[in-house]
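Lecture notes, unit on protein representations.

Consider one protein chain, 210 amino acids long.
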Amino acid sequence: MPSIRDLYVETADRAADLIADPATDARWGRPSVLARMSVGDLAGHLARSILQVEWYLDAPHRDETPVDAARYFIREGDPADLDSAHNQGIRERSTEVARQGHGELVSSTRATLDRLRDRLPAEPEGRLLEALGWVLPLDEYLKTRLVEITVHFDDLRLSTGVTEGPLPAEAIRVAVETLLDVARRRHGMAAVLTALARRERDAVQALRVF
């Protein structure tokens, strides 16, 4: 089984290929499968899961008890509310990255990933970083990036019509386990069990994380 760092690089490499695909460029300004986001915005959002790993590694972090990947995703408010400050911020940051255009985004994403390929194995065990107000161990943060990449890889693939091969099965496993942990903490074990086995009684949509 690969380390979480090796798995992240392998999965991010597939995402970078999809961002670089000519079909992404051709549909850059068209709507994506995500509401209020163009294909370019979505590509920018996907690229951020590569770019910001380096940004946060280079930035200082607060001295506080770190959280894990699941806690990172548990925030106030309805995650499906497109008008929430959190979701508006996601769209704004994605658009900001996309403004550089397809070619520049591909170049910066690939260059960042090349540096991370060498850098991540050298980072010490227990390395901390700060992301969007949370302090996390590096390996826990990479789990959040695997969630983002596996989810939005499929969004971008569907938005462009590209028939890319599947992402690493282990990456999808990590993403699913992380999201199940979010659902469990948000709604409790009983609600998750109901959602899995008795969907007709799942009044709270316990498995809906985003």
